[in-house]
Every structure is written in C-alpha cells, then in structure tokens.
Amino acid sequence: MTKIDRRAMFRLVGTGLALLPLTALTARAARHAGAAVTMSGMAFAPASLTVKAGTAVAFMNEDGAPHTATGDGWDTGRLNRGDSTEIAFDTPGTYAYACAIHPSMKGTIIVE
Ligand SMILES: [Cu+2]
C-alpha cells in the first residue's frame, strides 16, 4: 500500500514537471501578444510585419474567401471569414509565407 501511494505521488510530480515548459512558452507568448496580420482584399496587411522574438502574431481573415498563412514549417490552416489563429515566433529571422489557396498572396514576418 505504501509503495503504491509513493508511485502515484511520483507520477503527479512527473506530470507537473512536464507541463512546466508549456506554461513558460505560453507566458512568453502572452508578454508580446498584440501583433496582428489581417487577410483582406486578397492581401496580407501589413505585408511585412516586424516583431520581437516571442511574439504571438494573430492572423485574421476578413475576406469572403478562405485563406491560410503558410510558411516553412508553420501553417495557420484554412481560415474562413471571421476566423483567426495565433502563431508564436520565438526565434529571430525572416519568415516568408503565402496563402496556400491563393499563392499570389505573400507576406513576411521579421522577428528581431
Ligand atoms: Cu488566400
């Protein structure tokens, strides 16, 4: 009985530790939240956005047509009118992206 209780406690501690990095990531993203890119008139606005590392960028579709913001290794998925998705940019660099449905729609996120 004592053994089982100890193991259960161990599992709880393990679960808590596993959640820590996720919490830290969420807190960091929230600190710089507020940047947004609008999909409107078949274009991303602003087409080029500069943010600090750790910023969560919200992509919001205001068009009748569905759009995505699709970069190298990241993707908002299909967003219909009124939908939005946040992508966190943690590493400095220049991130080009396009709409997977309308490839002529292009944008860039610059992370400093
Ligand atoms: Cu599109």
Automatic annotation (TrEMBL):
Pfam families: Cupredoxin_1. Keywords: Signal. Gene3D superfamilies: Cupredoxins - blue copper proteins. Residues 23-111 form the EfeO-type cupredoxin-like domain. PROSITE patterns: TAT (PS51318). The keyword Amino-acid biosynthesis does not apply. Residues 1-29 form the signal peptide. This is Copper-binding protein, plastocyanin/azurin family. The lineage of its organism: Bacteria, Pseudomonadati, Pseudomonadota, Alphaproteobacteria, Rhodobacterales.
